[in-house]
Amino acid sequence: MNEKLRVGTSIVVWCAILLGLVTVAVVYLMGGVTTPLTLPRGEEMAAANVDTMHLARVSPAEVGLDAAHLEYVDNIVERSIDEGIIPGAVVGVVRGDRLAFVRSYGCREVVGSRVAMTDSTRFDLASLTKPVATATAIMQLVERGEIRLADRVDRYIAGFKGYADVKSPRDTVHIRIIDLMTHTSGLPPYLSTARLQREYEEVVLPASDSVIDYVANVERRAKPRTECEYSCLNYIALGRIVESVMGESLDVYAREHIFEPLGMSSTRFIPDAEYAAECAPTTVDGDGRMLRGVVHDPLARECMGGVSGNAGLFSTLDDLAVYAAMLLNDGEWRGVRVLSPRSVEALLTAPRGFEEWGRALGWSRCEGYSGVGGDLLSQSAVGHTGATGTSMVIDRELDIAVIVLTNYRHCQERVGVVDLRSKIASVVAASIRE
Predict the structure, then answer these.
(1) Burial, 64: exposed, middle or buried (Cβ in 10 Å; 0-12, 13-18, 19+)?
(2) Rounded distance, CA 191 to CA 299, Å?
């Protein structure tokens, strides 16, 4: 009797399973199921997030820009390529929440072999690392109450010296976080590898702790808040502050709190070999090696090991467009908030008392002579450049961003790309019709 019951139960169970499978198949064929039956995981989820977060590409007219006028960008870039100033470029224009202009020009590589530039080429951002990674991280810590811009740097970097007046050495003026962000700290501009090795005879590179010790003790060139001198050392110190407060390196923090939330999957420090293969190379180092996917800046590369607050970040046009859209949208992008509206306002505006220096928190104000903002953007525009030939301009008043990515260090000429950046920004501004 029990055996018959067991057999009967098994038959019922199997019939139910078969009926369920047939039902699913019928519904699927009739169009009732429009998504996969299993949810994506791991890399598939990451890819889906990227597709969701990247900006839609639209025609210029859809966002109030004159497409015919934007064709002048082609003339400017192609002339620079013909004159040997750059091997190629990728240019993007963000208006509101969409990419209204995307063009790639020339080659990403011309030494040894010629490889065409593409929209997805990955670039060494150089000093664009300062605003995109470092300044953004600092503002996140400010808005979460972890630090204050008015905090003394020696609170986070032990032994970090202030400025002592020669006439009154006891009257030390302490350097504060806001001084680092606005380049008014009095620190010297740079530290060469040779200088580090002279100062620390037994140093083994990379040696980030020795760099921080140098920054903490090097002679200050001016009293804080009396002069503005652009300095990579300021942002190396800021990167160490992030590490000191959060207990993790700048690259890990930026990935977890900025890039991954925004779906910026092609933005990173220290690229692996697969990533590096799609990078625009810069120059040949002292060992005859072409730097491809290896940070160009010697201080970041040789002394800091590739992770540095001043340089070391790699990215693409699509990823940087997401970052720009986040700023234009008051710190939020497609439901993901990276910064509060007040933090964005602070990040892109000269702090009270610092207006004369022309610096916002991590960005340069595009006023008067500018190598990135051109002549026609609004007074609220800010921008930043990278020594490899990269730049970004954010103009919240006009709701527009201009991204220019080149690897001009790959060419033999060393005339720079100030002219190129400025002219492109002016053309974009002049294309605005509404």
Answers:
(1) middle
(2) 7
Give the β-pairing of 313-315 and 56-57. unpaired
Domain 64-126+258-295+311-430 coded CATH 3.40.710.10: yes
Percent helix, percent strand, percent coil in the chain, to nearest 5: 40, 15, 45
Longest CA span, the chain = 107
DSSP label of 257: I
Q: What is the pLDDT along the chain (434 residues), one digit of tens a residue?
A: 444 434 344 443 344 444 444 443 433 333 333 333 232 333 333 444 557 899 999 999 999 999 999 999 999 999 999 999 999 999 999 999 999 999 999 999 998 889 999 999 999 999 999 999 999 999 999 999 999 999 999 999 999 999 986 666 567 899 999 999 999 999 999 999 999 999 999 999 999 999 999 999 999 999 999 999 999 999 999 999 999 999 999 999 999 999 999 999 999 999 999 999 999 999 877 777 889 999 999 999 999 999 999 999 999 999 999 999 999 999 999 999 999 999 999 999 999 999 998 899 999 987 655 578 999 999 999 999 999 999 999 999 999 999 999 999 997 656 678 899 999 999 999 999 98
Q: Where are the domains positioned within the chain?
A: 64-126+258-295+311-430
> Both ends of the chain: CA-CA distance in Å?
84
DSSP secondary structure string, 274-301? HHHTTBPP--B-TTS-B-SSS-S-HIII
Whether 293 contacts 306, CB under 8 Å: no
